[in-house]
Amino acid sequence: MTPVDLTGWNTALDAHNLTPAFINDLTGDPYDHPATARTEIRRANDTIPFIYRTAIADHTEVSSWADRLITTTREQTTGRIVPTIGRHRSLLLLGPTGVGKTHQAYGTLRYLAPTGIRTAWTATSSADLYAALRPRAGVDSESEFRRYAHAPLLLVDDLGAAKSSEWTEEINFRLVNHRYENQLPTIFTSNVLPKELADRVGDRVSSRLIEMCDRVVIQGTDRRRQAAA
Ligand SMILES: Nc1ncnc2c1ncn2[C@@H]1O[C@H](COP(=O)(O)OP(=O)(O)OP(=O)(O)O)[C@@H](O)[C@H]1O
Ligand SMILES: [Mg+2]
C-alpha cells in the first residue's frame, strides 16, 4: 500500500468533500473507501490520455448524471464491501468539433474516481474499437468484443465519426444493443447534430441510444482554435 499522486485532483476531491489526507490514509484495509479511491485514481493517472489528465466534468448536466450514477450504485450495492457500478442509464454527449465532449467524458471518469466506487471503466474511441476488433491472426475478436461489451462502465468516444461500413454498423449495433439490453452505463460522445444521429449510426442504434441515454448537447466554439488564436 503506497500513497497515490494527487496532483490535479483537488477539484474532484472538493466536489465530494474529500481531502488528500483521507485518500492517502493507509489504513491497511484493501477494500475501504480510501483504498478503492487510490486504485481508481492511480488507474486514471496512468491511462487517461495526457491532455485530459486534469479534465473535470464541469458541465452541470454531466456532473448531475455522474451524481445519479453514484447514488444508484450506492443504493444497489448497500452491504457490499466495495460498491461496484451496476445497471444505470447512459450518457450521450453531443456537440460540434472541439467544444469539449471528450474532456467532459474523461472528466466524468475522474469525477467518479475518488468516490470509493469501483468503476472498472474501459475507454475507447470508436476508431480504436474497430481497429481492436478487426479480424486478424492470433486475436480472438469475440473475446475482445466482450471486453468492451461487458465493461461495467464504458466510454465510447466519437461514435459515428468514421465513415461507416456494414461491418462497423454491425459492431455499433452489437455493442449498443448489449449495453442497452443489460442497462450497462456507457458514456458516448459524438460530433453529429441530434437530428443527424439516425443518419450517421442507423435507426436501430439511434433508437436505442435515445431510450437508454441522458442526452447533453455541449454548446460553444472550437476550444482548440480559441487556444491557438
Ligand atoms: N471545460 C474545459 N476546460 C478547459 N479545457 C477544455 C475544456 N473542455 C475542453 N477543453 C480543451 O479543449 C480542447 C478540445 O476539447 P475536446 O478534445 O474535449 O473536444 P471534443 O468536443 O471532444 O472535440 P472533437 O469533436 O474534435 O473530438 C482540448 O484541448 C481540451 O483539453
Ligand atoms: Mg473528442
UniProtKB/TrEMBL annotation:
Regions annotated as coiled coil: none
GO MF annotations, alphabetized: ATP binding
InterPro entries: AAA+_ATPase, IstB_ATP-bd, P-loop_NTPase
Keywords in alphabetical order: ATP-binding, Nucleotide-binding
Keyword ATP-binding carried by entry: yes
Domain AAA+ ATPase: start-end pairs: 87-211
Any one Pfam family match given in the protein's UniProt record, by short name: IstB_IS21
Protein name, per record: ATP-binding protein
Organism: Streptomyces kaempferi
Phylogenetic lineage: Bacteria, Bacillati, Actinomycetota, Actinomycetes, Kitasatosporales
